[in-house]
Amino acid sequence: MRPLDHRAMVRLSVAQLIPALNGGGVERGTLEVARELVRCGHRSVVISAGGRLVPQLVDEGSQHLAWPLGVKSPLTLRWVWPLRRWLAEQRIDILHARSRLPAWAGWLAWRGMDPMTRPRFVTTVHGLYSVSRYSAIMTRGERVIAVSETIRDYLQRHYPRLPAERIQVIPRGVDPAAFPYGYQPASKWLAEWYQRYPQLRNAQVLTLPGRLSRLKGHEEFIKLINELRVRGLPVYGLIAGGVEPGRQRYADQLQYQVQTRGLNDAILFAGHRADMREIYATSTLVLSLSAQPESFGRTVLEALSLGIPVAGYDHGGVGEILHRLYPAGLTPPGDLRSLMERVIALLTAAPPVPMEPVFTLQSMLDETLALYEWLYQTSRSHT
Description:
- By secondary structure, this protein is of the alpha/beta class.
- It has two domains: 6-173 and 361-382, 3-Layer(aba) Sandwich (Rossmann fold), CATH 3.40.50; 187-349, Glycogen Phosphorylase B (Rossmann fold, 3-Layer(aba) Sandwich), CATH 3.40.50.2000.
- Helices cover 38% and strands 15% of the residues.
- The protein has 13 helices and 13 strands.
- The strands form two sheets. The chain has a seven-stranded parallel sheet, sandwiched between helices. It has a six-stranded parallel sheet with strand order 10-9-8-11-12-13, sandwiched between helices.
- Helix 10 packs parallel to helix 11 (316-325).
C-alpha cells in the first residue's frame, strides 16, 4: 500500500466499533484515532456501550452511539439490522472493528449490504486471542491491522487462509511529547511521592507496571527483589497496578508472599496510578515479566521513551521492542537466574537508552488514516 498524505484527502466518515470506553490500551487507541480523524477534517463516530471516556471523546469532536455491541449474549445480534440500516443512511465510508463481538455484529451487518456501496471493512487484532471460529472474525477485514510483528506471525500461523497481503502491521506508539526523553517530575510531585514512600528517595527502584494478574509476573518480581537483597543489593521494588475485579484473593496472596519474606518495607504496592510517567522517571529500572507473550508492550515503550532502562522477557511484542530499541534489557522468559544476572548488570552499568523515537503515536495515526483513505479510493476489485 502506497502511503497517502491524509491531510489533503476527501472527507471520510469513519465508524469504530468497540465494546465499551472505560479505559485500557484498546480504548485509548480508539480515542487517539478518533481525535486525529477530527483534526484532519474527517467525521468520526465510535459505537460502544459507553463508559467514562465518552465525555472526552465527544469533547474532542467525535460522535458516540451508545449501542451495546460487546455484550456476550445472543441478544447482541439484534443490533445487526439497525447497524446495517444506520451504516447505509449515514453513508459510512470505513467500518473499523477493534474487538471480536462487535466485529461479528459489524461483519454480519456489512455482509448484507450492497458490495459496491457498503463501507470498507477493517479489523485490528490487538491481542493473541484463543484460536477459534469465534476469534477468526478478526481475520474477516478487507484489511487486517496487526499491532506488532508478533500479531502478524500469530495470524499467519493460526489462520493460514488469511492472505498475507491483507495483513498490515501498524505498531502502536507513544507520544514523545507526553513521554519526553529525560523528563523530570515536578518538585511538588516529588515531595508528595517521597513523603508517601520515603525509603525510595535516592534508592535503586525496580518498577513492575501492570494490573495484578497472574500473567504479569508479580511472583517472579517478588522472588527477584528477595534474591537481590539476599545478595546485599539494597534495591526496592514498586508494583504499580490495580486489583482487577474478582482478583482480590491473588492480591492478598502477593501481600502474604511479601510479608513472609520480610519485605514489607522493600516491596511497595502503589495500586492503580494515573501518574505512570512520573513513576517511570523516578525508577532506576522498569521490568516486564509477563508469563505469556504480549501483543505489543506499551509500558515498555513508555519507559524507554523517557530514557529509562527496561529489562524484559524475550518474547512477544516486548521482545520485539527491546530487540529494536534496547537489546541490553533482553532476558530468557521464565529464567529467574538469567533475569537476576541481567538486572544486576543493568544496575551496575546500564547502557544509555537511544534518544531517537521509533514507535511513535503520530506514525501509528498517519499509517491508520492512510490505510482508510487508500481503501476508500481503491477499487474493491483490487483489494
